[in-house]
Amino acid sequence: MAPITGTIHEVKMVGDTKGYRFEPANFSVKQGDGAKFVVVTGGPHNVAFDPATVPADVRDQLNANMGTDKMGDFSSNMKMNAGESITVSFGKIKPGQYPYHCVPHLALGMKGVITVQ
Ligand SMILES: [Cu+2]
Q: Model's pTM, two decimal places?
């Protein structure tokens, strides 16, 4: 796992009467920043990157950067309770756009795009 050397961006994972979503869903980070995804309501949630959109030369690093919460390729384990979180490092991740989603709620539109600058 490449360490987080910059800012940690907090993202809420929410499910309520308005739907399921990441807040913010679309945001930018600098290489070396991190993102901390925190359950607010509506779990279980997780964080997964679409293998089809992850560049071949980023795959190993992105998998490593999901740390101990990684469960499958580019996919974290599930978080159920408010306050539980998943932190992903963008250390050594090359600039580009990285679409991500919550596996249980993808069909309900719980997805976004992280831009690494
Ligand atoms: Cu979800």
A: 0.97
